[in-house]
Amino acid sequence: MKCPFCNCAETQVVDSRVSEEGDTIRRRRRCTACDRRFTTYERVDLMMPAIVKRNGTRADFDPSKLHGSMSLALRKRPVSATALDAAVARIQERLLTSGQREVQSDHVGELVMSELRQLDPVAYVRFASVYRSFEDLREFVQAIDEFRRADDADDPG
């Protein structure tokens, strides 16, 4: 860490403390050249992957957009805000741990479909109808049948 006063690269950590939230480390440092003290803060800087849209453009990942689209599908459904927040957090975690710098929007859509499938079947079909651009009733029936087959495969009894 360079000294902000004399730009010397040799500094010494005098004291370190973790913040009350536990997400930041406060370090008190002393410059070995000019003997002045200063404080630095360390925190984890996680980079979410960029989202590559269907038309090829790229956008920063925005958890509020993800939350908004999922809450729209879950509108007037018996799913708690806590369950929705947990689903969004799981999707973010999967994107973050993928290690990829870019992710196709289709992949994010499939992650959303997977979470909604667990939360509420009606929300799943609602989201699928927009995500897959349903044109007629037959596509709704196919989505419901797909949900039922997956549900039957999960239920051994």
From TrEMBL:
<keyword id="KW-0805">Transcription regulation</keyword>
<dbReference type="Pfam" id="PF22811">
    <property type="entry name" value="Zn_ribbon_NrdR"/>
</dbReference>
<comment type="similarity">
    <text>Belongs to the NrdR family.</text>
</comment>
<protein>
    <recommendedName>
        <fullName>Transcriptional repressor NrdR</fullName>
    </recommendedName>
</protein>
<keyword id="KW-0067">ATP-binding</keyword>
<feature type="domain" description="ATP-cone">
    <location>
        <begin position="49"/>
        <end position="139"/>
    </location>
</feature>
<keyword id="KW-0479">Metal-binding</keyword>
<keyword id="KW-0863">Zinc-finger</keyword>
<dbReference type="InterPro" id="IPR003796">
    <property type="entry name" value="RNR_NrdR-like"/>
</dbReference>
<keyword id="KW-0547">Nucleotide-binding</keyword>
<keyword id="KW-0678">Repressor</keyword>
<dbReference type="InterPro" id="IPR005144">
    <property type="entry name" value="ATP-cone_dom"/>
</dbReference>
<keyword id="KW-0862">Zinc</keyword>
<dbReference type="InterPro" id="IPR055173">
    <property type="entry name" value="NrdR-like_N"/>
</dbReference>
<keyword id="KW-0238">DNA-binding</keyword>
<feature type="zinc finger region">
    <location>
        <begin position="3"/>
        <end position="34"/>
    </location>
</feature>
<dbReference type="Pfam" id="PF03477">
    <property type="entry name" value="ATP-cone"/>
</dbReference>
<comment type="function">
    <text>Negatively regulates transcription of bacterial ribonucleotide reductase nrd genes and operons by binding to NrdR-boxes.</text>
</comment>
<keyword id="KW-0804">Transcription</keyword>
